[in-house]
Amino acid sequence: MLRLRPTRRMIILYLINPVALLACSQFVGLARAQSPGRSWNSSVACCQRLLSQLGSKVSYPGSSVYISETNGSDSYWSQQEASILSSCRVTPTSAEDVSVAVVALNQGNCSFAVRGGGHTPFAGAANIEDGVTIDFGSMNQVTVNQNQTITSIGAGARWGSVYSTLDAMNLAVSGGRVSDVGVAGLTLGGGLSFFAPQHGFACDGVMSHQVVLASGQIVIANEYENADLHQALKGGSNNFGVVTRFDLKTFPQGKLWGGLIVLPITAAQQQFQPLVDFNAASGAGLDPFATVINAYVYSNTTGSLITNFPVYTKPEPFPAILQNFTNMQPQLLNTLEITNLTTFTDELDGNEPKGFRQLWATLTIGNDAELLSSIFNASDSLANPLLGTVSNLQWALAFQAVPMSASAQGALNGGNVLGISPSDGNLFIVNLGIQWTEEADDARLNAAAEEFLTQATQLAEAKGLLNDFIYLNYALPTQNPLGSYGSENLQKLRDVSAKYDPGQVFQRLVPGGFKIPG
């Protein structure tokens, strides 16, 4: 009798019909025999176990749920992530479901990924080849407590749904600035916010985490219980357990004022001193309601432009602290208006469409106009030669202020592990974002991003203005954000990992994201 050697594709196609899979023990046995140890075959066995325990909450390639979560209406942001084919996906509806899944995956020695919103661009961050992906898309509840001080948010929620719920109640939390970004990833990585001068990073507003540990135990981590775990999760990412719920500090918030101002790229040198002056004023606490995102966007479809996003978290147009930006000319577009968080984060989301290949890279620098100008020039010299040769290219360099008023909030809210404080002075997070369509351009654009980091780092070092902090949510996979938090915080991460995950499940079996350096 002719016996076919099953390929991975044969197994995946067969898994489209899970009932038939369970019935065909001979085929599964043959598949297991082909590759001993942890492999795509063991992930098939884990999918079987999960199917027997969680039923319809497990989906396979070809099913409507699987397609929706990967390339459909709930797809990943980057094409690199969307193109990964996991052996199966688990869509839990409760922390108890997550506990069942984690125990099964641990016992089966199966690699797995955890997806909140799926907005991290690099492949494998929240998806996994030859493994199981836990997708929180059905755990997206947003509920406010009776006295309106805490909002409890499921790990699958995105900021747009959070803000639409809270806007109706004239409330807010310190969260993301793009509506389609997930709550979980942004918050576990720190999280930049419109409310940073008042409330710090998004992680500083987490009052409590609900966490499923590697053992399957469901615990609460806050300042009163498991406080070390609570602090480690404020910037420590996915290294300690699966966070299933975030309880965020909630505060009154009505309308705000903000929008987009577009200028020609020739106005670049007008930007840098106003940015430094703004950062200094914000750091001194002169007006804690203002933020600005300043970006330089190169595109072979729309040309090269400057985009400024000034935001004032009160319904007061043209505040003095932002007038250096609102007065700049010539303005090609101006959408400034009194609006709400839902509308404004939707506007920003419109600038980050799905379906493209994406990468981010980052560094942190001091508050210096000459350095900003030099880094812009380095970016400009790298971007322009690519415009004529890379199809559908968008190259965006952004400067985002982290004033001392923002970094002070960590200690005031129980501490985080990010490793920055007012003693670092007023800082800028520099973010390079590149968008394109063809896989053939991957190597070239990754090399360009690395070259940008090299040049920008050298420029900052030459002026004594390079800060060690690497913002995890913007980092290239070759960067080491957790190592940038400083030796004391890194040791905290190691200690918490050893205490709550003694078998190192989240270091061994969850390869995605950034792992704790040894």
- The CATH architecture of the largest domain is 3-Layer(aba) Sandwich
Q: What percent strand?
A: 15-25%
N-to-C CA distance: 51 Å
Helical coverage, percent range: 25-40%
Which structural category fits the helices and strands?
A: alpha+beta
Give me the CATH fold name of the largest domain. Vanillyl-alcohol Oxidase, Chain A, domain 3
Shape: globular
Task: Quickly count the domains.
Answer: 3
Detail the poorly predicted runs.
Answer: 1-39
- Whole-number mean pLDDT: 93
Count of distinct strands: 21
In the CATH scheme, the class of the largest domain would be Alpha Beta
Global Rg: 23 Å
Task: Give the helix tally.
Answer: 20
Q: Quick one: biggest sheet? A: 10 strands, antiparallel
Question: How would you characterize the overall build of this protein?
Answer:
The strands form 4 sheets. Strands 12, 13, 14, 15, 16, 17, 18, 19, 20 and 21 form a 10-stranded antiparallel β-sheet that branches. This protein has 518 residues and is of the alpha+beta class. Helix content is 35%, strand content 21%. Helix 12 (272-283) packs across helix 15. Residues 1-33 form the signal peptide.
What keyword list fits this structure?
518 residues, Uridine Diphospho-n-acetylenolpyruvylglucosamine Reductase, domain 3, Vanillyl-alcohol Oxidase, Chain A, domain 3, ten-stranded antiparallel sheet, 21% strand, globular
Question: Can you describe this structure in just a few lines?
Answer:
The chain has 518 residues and is of the alpha+beta class. It has 20 helices and 21 strands. Strands 12, 13, 14, 15, 16, 17, 18, 19, 20 and 21 form a 10-stranded antiparallel beta sheet that branches. It has a 5-stranded antiparallel beta sheet with strand order 5-6-10-8-9.
